[in-house]
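Late entry, evening session. Most of the bench is empty. Finally got around to the prediction I had been postponing all week. Sequence below, unchanged from the version circulated by S.P.
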Amino acid sequence: MVATRINKELIELVTPKQSTTDLEGEMEEFAERYQLFLENTMAICIPDNPMSNISYMGTEMIEALELPVEPESFVLHLNTFHRKTDEKYDPAKDQNEQDFDILVEHAAALGIKYLLCVSGDGSERLPRLQPEDLGYDPEKTKTVTSVQLLEYLGRAYPGVFTLGTAFNQYEPLEAEMEKLRQKIAAGAVFIITQPVVLIESGDPALTTANNNLHQMMKYADDQGVQVILGAWMSVKLAYLIPECIGFEVDFGNFSPDENLKVIRETYPERRLYYSMIFTAKRLQKVLAITEGK
């Protein structure tokens, strides 16, 4: 049976980078897209410093722009690259939300329900959480990954958040499935995959990825864990995915719209996670495809 936790299509909305030279303009665009996605009954998903770019947190944008939080329509990404101090969230103060505790406590205060826990991308300016930050013995736990993040959030915030994780079908299956079993044991109840490409190019790596995806979904369904399929709606996928996974995959003459049709026909019961949709016109075209129009 296919489990459902988030009963809406999901869509990614990226916050402005802290290095932007037009913060006011980008905040205005963020607010417009936020309202657009809510009006189309979608769950908004906000990444956490994507691709190691230090960005404003989703919580900061919501507060500054006075945007509504609908718990069933919001997913906040949370990765392991944050500092952790003893400072607690205080709505009366101007605080740095790159701080792990402040970010998580602010999310709870806003009524955010869904957290997607990932290991994330680090840099010199983004220190990784240390095992002792989350209550682990550094002699036994050498590195904080999404597994420790899931365990900690379930332990420190019982009943507050519904936790999810990621799955990379382009990685070797045995190792990725072992990580997934650990993540589910740690509390993950929904999974978001890497972008799915079902129009085969003839590259064995893509065929293997789709076989991996099928096997993972069977396992997750047996565990009662929801699987949400990644759908990148841009031709840029052909070079961005290899950049993300670290090796080349030939996607052929990739068409995001044709691929979306095949995803929807193949997996009509699955929710999708859309990325790279920036305008109302593009959103309406994508929704028309998913509805078979």
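Two things to note before I forget:
The first strand starts at residue 10 and ends at 12.
Residues 204-223 form the longest helix (20 residues).
Will write this up properly tomorrow.
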